[in-house]
Write a structure and sequence with these properties.
The complex is a heterodimer. Chain A is an alpha+beta fold. Chain A has two domains: 171 residues, Hotdog Thioesterase (Thiol Ester Dehydrase, Chain A); 119 residues, Beta Barrel (OB fold (Dihydrolipoamide Acetyltransferase, E2P)). Helices cover 16% and strands 35% of the residues of chain A. In chain A, strands 1, 2, 3, 4, 5 and 6 form a six-stranded antiparallel sheet that branches. In chain A, strands 10-11-12-14-13 form a five-stranded mixed beta barrel. In chain A, strands 8-7-9 form a three-stranded antiparallel sheet, covered by helices on one side. Chain A is elongated. About 3% of the residues of chain A have low confidence. Chain B is α/β, with parallel strands linked by helices. In chain B, helix 1 packs across helix 2. The chains are: A alpha+beta, B alpha/beta. Chains A and B meet through helix 1, strand 4, strand 10, strand 11 and strand 12 of A and helix 5 and strand 5 of B.
Chain lengths: 313, 390
């Protein structure tokens, strides 16, 4: 087990399952506080403001047992700090904090005069996860809110991500240094294939043809698989063909391509199949069997490719 | 393919946990799994004299062998073509033991595929111009056609076109696998079943493949100990016989870009192997109780069901819809949740599950476990085997 796994295991042993509380509300539920909250939030629901039996907005649940502006809990509250685990994660280097989710359930409305207290339990500390923000773990807290008769009024499950901010993440990189312009990967042009890539640079889509048995082949290879001849020539494709299959790639988005990136397998009229990009047709309009034509395009310095367009359905 | 001369069996299994970040090296993972497989088998590290793995594995066989206490290595081999290499090592182990080259072989694979180099990221493994991968992929990478999902999407699209299959048909496979995973504590998706609606609303990766059609990316290692059935009699575990095994590549086969078969809705390597495998094992499709079919992408299950004659061509989607391959079905497929539901350890975690089923140790234990079909990668030069409980 790695060091970081051990550290998290120790934290789990120390914190998970421990129920901490009570934390008392500084004030009983009052119409004044409800009015202030509704005014701040732009809430106009008469159930909270006007009716004689007005209730507090359920989403105020957490606010009743908030600390005061000095960070103190109300008298008689426990001295224990629910969030000690977050501090320990800070000291392990997981200094980043994000609240990931906050799910509340309400068991009854709170109304004027209710005096709330709460308990909090760390339910889970996840394994290490790789996230877009950096490596870290999710901490799940479960909070319970009771009235003065110890009746459960509501509860909340809160998930935090504590993470080590990434030094080299994509976002950081783009903030600190401009991305080097990324080009397409250049093909290997070797003894067997350089004619093909040179042909494209010359504006021609070349297909290998066996000099002995005239079998055509693509992608290029040195020996004819039909008659084993090493002699071959090229013929120039007229660039017409039929879509045999296709895909529209959405993810991952790899520079420098535009997405969705449509790739087609085309049965060229000369009898070989080739994979290439298709432009000018929305993916949902493409059908197997569509007739296509390739234009040879220089896509970057020294690299030309056949790009297909649909010519007829 | 002639009959097996001497019978060969899997007598030990070992695995690490499967995760998204193992926190340790691939070498450590491989050693941990290999060591626990040796312990499980009842043999000693010094008894291991053969090692077989994938060409893509980054852990040299001599390094793993030395660390688990190996002495002399008489046989070592690797199999190419990514997940297509999931069966080759077993085939090589069988041949090596039968021919007397060695006695006890470890098959292993250890990878940090999620926390290390992710196969689906489009990142390039080697820019070396002499590397066969680069020579091959030169015809695809310059267009941005760079991920396994996009390559296999071509096959899935043809399958839909030819047989009227839909994304929902693919989704039903994922739902079945996630159901198995939901009750398998080793699975990433333990206690997380998926609905067809959730599948249908998952984001498009490479049309028609959605996120939940794709296998996971995982860290972990799996290892097996292979020896003769004769020797297995003195060992503690229920032996799982490799009743038949072979590899297959056809002239039209290519490395993960299976575009040059006359019909790419099929993976014809599987069709080519089926009769041999059934014949040598002395069984037929109806004798197969359960299967571990390579599920890098959910639609790839469909042509495999057809190739191995569980249904007629184009009817696999109906077989899936009938529940045939799901929990409680006649021939459950990937009862661990597969690589979509449990973890992606290049196919070996599924073979691990087959052994567990035959030992009666699966978290999703089924009743009939006499014969299982296992396959390696689809859309690559590949292999398959039939395993038999003893």
């Amino acid at each position: 087990m790695s060091e970081s796994h051990k550290e998290l295991d120790l934290l789990r042993q120390k914190f998970v399952g421990q129920r901490v509380g009570p934390y008392y509300a500084w004030n009983k539920v009052s119409r004044t506080q409800v009015w202030q909250w509704c005014a701040a939030m732009g809430e106009t629901n008469p159930n909270y403001l006007q009716k004689s039996d007005a209730v507090a907005p359920p989403t105020m649940l957490q606010s009743w047992t908030f600390r005061d502006v000095h960070g103190n809990y109300a008298p008689d509250s426990t001295d224990k700090n629910t969030y000690e685990v977050l501090g320990e994660l800070d000291s392990l280097g997981y200094v980043g904090s994000v609240a990931v989710s906050y799910d509340q359930s309400y068991h009854r409305y709170l109304k004027e005069g209710d005096h709330v207290h709460s308990f909090s339990t760390i339910k889970d500390i996840s394994d290490l996860k790789s996230t877009g923000l950096g490596e870290g773990c999710f901490v799940t807290e479960f909070a319970e809110y009771f009235d003065h008769d110890d009746q459960l009024c509501g509860d909340a499950t809160i998930t935090y991500l504590k993470y080590k901010p990434q030094q080299s993440s994509k976002t950081n990189r783009s903030e600190t240094a401009p991305l080097k312009k990324v080009g397409r990967i250049s093909p290997v042009e070797n003894h067997d294939s350089k004619h093909f890539w040179q042909g494209l640079r010359d504006g021609k889509l070349l297909i290998q043809e066996c000099s002995e048995c005239q079998t055509k082949r693509h992608p290029p290879q040195p020996m004819c698989e039909t008659c084993q001849s090493l002699e071959w020539q090229t013929i120039e494709s007229n660039c017409f063909g039929t879509i045999y299959s296709y895909t529209a790639i959405h993810y991952p988005e790899i520079p420098p391509f535009d997405y969705p990136n449509v790739i087609v397998l085309v049965d060229l009229d000369e009898g070989v199949r080739i994979a290439a990009q298709l432009e000018g047709t929305q993916p949902e309009k493409i059908e197997i069997g569509d007739r296509v034509q390739a234009h040879i395009k220089e896509v970057q310095d020294g690299l030309a490719l056949p790009i297909f367009k649909v010519t007829a359905k | 393919m002639t009959n097996m001369k001497d019978k060969i069996a899997i007598v030990g299994i070992g695995a690490t946990e499967f995760s998204k970040n193992s926190g340790r090296s691939e070498m450590q993972l491989a050693c941990e799994a290999a060591h626990s497989a040796v312990k499980d088998s009842g043999l000693q590290g010094a008894d291991i004299d053969g090692m077989a793995t994938f060409s893509m594995d980054n852990n040299w066989e001599i390094e793993v062998h030395r660390q688990i206490g190996g002495q002399e290595l008489r046989f070592f081999s690797r199999t190419e073509f990514g997940g297509g290499g999931a069966i080759g090592p077993f085939a090589h182990a069988v041949s090596a033991i039968q021919s007397g080259q060695c006695n006890n072989v470890i098959v292993y694979r250890g990878m940090n595929e999620r926390s290390g180099l992710r196969f689906g990221s489009g990142e390039i493994m080697s820019m070396n111009a002499l590397n066969p991968d680069m020579i091959h992929f030169s015809h695809y990478f310059p267009t941005g056609f760079m991920t396994p999902a996009s390559w296999i999407a071509m096959c899935a699209r043809r399958y839909m076109h030819q047989y009227g299959a839909t994304s929902e048909d693919f989704g039903r496979i994922t739902v079945s696998l996630r159901d198995f995973a939901s009750t398998n504590p080793n699975a990433f998706f333990y206690q997380k079943p998926l609905t067809l609606e959730e599948h249908q609303s998952s984001k498009m990766i490479a049309d028609p493949l959605r996120l939940f059609d794709c296998c996971q990316e995982s860290d972990g290692a799996v290892a097996f100990v292979i020896t003769s059935l004769e020797r297995a009699k003195d060992l503690p575990q229920t032996p799982v016989e490799i009743a038949s095994v072979r590899q297959c590549a056809l002239p039209s086969s290519r490395q993960v870009t299976p575009f040059y078969h006359q019909d790419i809705a099929q993976f014809p390597e599987f069709d080519a192997m089926a009769d041999d495998l059934y014949g040598v094992a002395g069984v037929q499709a109806e004798d197969i109780d359960f299967a571990c079919l390579y599920d890098h992408f959910s639609p790839s299950i469909l042509p495999q069901l057809e190739a191995f004659k569980f249904c007629a061509r184009g009817e696999a989607k109906d077989l899936v819809a009938s529940g045939h391959i799901s929990r409680g079905g006649k021939m459950p497929v990937n009862t661990n949740g597969g690589q979509i539901g449990e973890a992606y350890i290049h196919g070996l975690n599924g073979i691990l599950e087959v052994v567990r089923q035959m030992r009666g140790e699966s978290p999703n234990q089924i009743d009939n476990t006499e014969h299982a079909l296992v396959t390696a990668g689809a859309g690559v030069p590949t292999g398959a085997a039939i395993l038999r409980k003893h």
